[in-house]
Amino acid sequence: MSMRPDEIVAILRRQIQELDAELQVESEGTVLTVGDGIARVYGLEQAMAGELLEFPGETYGMVLNLEEDNIGAVILGPYEHIKEGDAVRRTGRIVQVPVGEELVGRVVNPLGQPIDGKGPIKANAYRPIESRAPGVVDRRGVHQPLQTGLKAIDSMIPIGRGQRELIIGDRQTGKTAIAVDTILNQHDQNVICIYVAIGQKASTVAGVVATLQKHGAMDYTIVVSATASEPAPLLYIAPYAGAAMGEEFMYKGKDVLVIYDDLSKHAAAYREMSLLLRRPPGREAFPGDVFYIHSRLLERAAKLSDELGGGSMTALPIIETQAGDISAYIPTNVISITDGQIYLEPDLFYAGIRPAVSVGRSVSRVGGAAQVRAMRQVAGTLRLDLSQYRELLAFAQFGSDLDRVTQTRLARGERIYEILKQEQYKPMSVPEQVVSLYTAVNGHLDSIAVEDVVRFERELLAYMHREQPHILVAIAEQKEITDEIKAGLETAIKTFKQSFMS
Q1: Which of 43, 407, 427, 470 has its CA 20 to 30 A from that of 298?
Q2: For residue range 89-142, what is the model confidence (pLDDT) as tens digits?
Q3: Considering only CA atoms, which of 378, 362, 311, 375 is closest in space to residue 139?
Q4: Residue 190 CA neighbour count, 13 Å, CB half
Q5: What does DSSP say about strands 166-169 and 340-344: parallel, antiparallel, or unpaired?
Q6: Which of 89, 139, 365, 376 is catalytic?
Q7: Is 161 a catalytic site residue?
Q8: pLDDT single digits (tens) 29-81
Q9: Is the dihedral of CA 276, 279, 285, 289 positive or negative?
């Protein structure tokens, strides 16, 4: 069948009219040098700081240095296949990660790609890893508690939703244990948790994930993992990716807890990148803006105003010290940014007092405003009692003739330290903590042998759940110790103590 010329012309005309011609301009540059995860690229004059670049082999990089004749980019992944002369394309977008409910329960890398073998993540939204922190007008004062489930912290160094509380101490003193226990305690608190592992061993991260799965905590947790084997750029962007994932929930009016474990390795990764990019080194060879990388990260944690939905993001950064030196460069930087710190003392840890929280060096600058009134009532004199105990203990070593008041204070302090001990992965509810601390502070343990204190507490709480559950319910609902609750507590403790002693 042959077509007439006028039919062919009509078809061509129609196709030309329907043609949607769109000019696509692509910026392309050339790799000048590549090595140690750093690429120098020529010809991308329009590139933005923090922009994502596309290298051959579906490898991406991030622009960090904008120089006169070239740009310095860090490569986010393996770079052995990239060579001099390769073409590099701009993507026109800042580094971003997938966010939303789809990530909950998953283990992802800092680019939001799943690494848990559970298939792809079908995220509907993306957020840039860097975003401006909420301004003063957009914030509200911290006024709601974030319970860790740890008596030593909830009583003396309370944390509020929207606060930034540093966990600091030497290696192997229980920093990660506090973070994991805090996540486990959020199971009925309606808090989304994000655990960001920076430079940890892959086996350590796997252990944390296994613990969270065992206790059912992965149902409300996202794990962002940048292990020690990953290149420095991925370690550098990991906490910002975690913060972006948290912000998505915060701006939807939800409460979020983000743990950065740990920022010492994050600073070291940034130092490595900066030195390779030939940025001038400063103190301890860190670049001059090492304070800024942590301040712009931690300032994103906030309690939003009611107009913005009232969501919150609480940050628990972790810093590892060397031989207890909290006056080093990175520890002092982060201490000055955060709203207080929980200092873990190696001597307490080795003495079997765990969590090894140092009362003298730990402080919460805003958590008291968010503390439950019942906890304030029982813990009001706790810090003072423990401080006096530590002071008297030093003097008691030199002399044996101690007056009765001193002996009473030493005995009380010893028992309070025993009651503050807590097993790992066993966070306690607020009513349980209040009962335990009330018993210790009001002298009910003074006649109990020190080695029996932990057993006494365990059996007392079991007795309260079994025989006096209405008292625990009353504390949970009223959030304060009324005269009625106090009378009930006194009676219950005395009744149990008689049976325990006998």
Answers
A1: 427
A2: 999 999 999 999 999 999 999 999 999 999 999 999 999 999 999 999 999 999
A3: 311
A4: 8
A5: parallel
A6: 365
A7: no
A8: 999 999 999 999 999 988 999 999 999 998 999 999 999 999 999 999 889 99
A9: negative
